[in-house]
Amino acid sequence: MKRKGPPFPYFGMRRVFATVVLMLLCVCIVWLSVMMPRFSSTSKKSDQFDDIIIAAAKRHSLDPMLIKAVIWQESRFDPAARGDQGEIGLMQVRRPAVLDWAANINCDEPCVGIVFNPLVNIEIGSWYLANAKSYWDRYAHKDELALSTYNAGLKPAQKWVPFKTEDNVLERITYPGTRRYVASIMSKYSEYKKEQESR
After folding, report:
1. Is residue 5 part of a domain?
2. DSSP secondary structure string for all residues of 125-166
3. 169: which DSSP letter?
4. Burial of residue 2 (number of CB atoms within 10 Å: 0-12, 13-18, 19+)
5. Residue spans of alpha helices (H) in the chain
6. What pLDDT was estimated at residue 29?
């Protein structure tokens, strides 16, 4: 007698099961890449992402100590940090920056879980910061203008441009929160550079 139905009735279920297992495995990999540095006891919290920071700094022609100071200000080195305005990860990147970065490298928008990954998060944040710094390249205080752009956006930062390229920027920032943000990062940046020089 001829058998009716598919020869392997459980093939469909096996495929679904394999897909679920693969998805769970991907989630676990992302979770481990984010969470494991938090449990590392071999280095200080502020040093655990140094290799990623240095590599990103080289790619984007930035001082790694500046990137590190931004991370300190934005998340205190917590890769799972979330902001009130949708900012995520170490460098507290937002979706518009993620979309710009993805368009720049001609790829699809990464999912939120991937953006939390320190490697991806630092890459996007550093790329955005480098673009901002390049925009203000002719100014003596381009770091402060780049940080203003990173925090408040380009349009507000354009209002704080000094009349002379060598003039101070900080005193021209009219958003108190942004002024404190920039001052705090620049202070930490100086501290990190001194630590680096003393090693």
Report:
1. no
2. HHHHHHHHHHHTTTSTTHHHHHHHHHHH-HHHHHHT--SSTT
3. S
4. exposed
5. 11-35, 50-60, 64-75, 95-104, 112-116, 118-135, 142-152, 154-159, 176-198
6. 54
Domain count of the fold of the chain: 1
Q: Give the tens place of pLDDT for each residue, 118-155.
A: 999 999 999 999 999 999 999 999 999 999 999 999 99
How many CB atoms are closer than 10 A to CB 142? 17
Burial class (CB in 10 A: 0-12, 13-18, 19+), 25: exposed
Two tokens, residue 8: 């392997």
- Report the CATH number that the domain containing residue 49 is assigned in CATH: 1.10.530.10
* Single-letter code of the amino acid located at 30: V
In a domain, 182, yes or no: yes
Q: Range of 63's domain? A: 11-198
Kindly report which listed range (2-16, 93-107, 179-193) carries the lowest average pLDDT score: 2-16
What per-residue confidence (pLDDT) applies to 46?
84
Say what the pTM is.
0.78
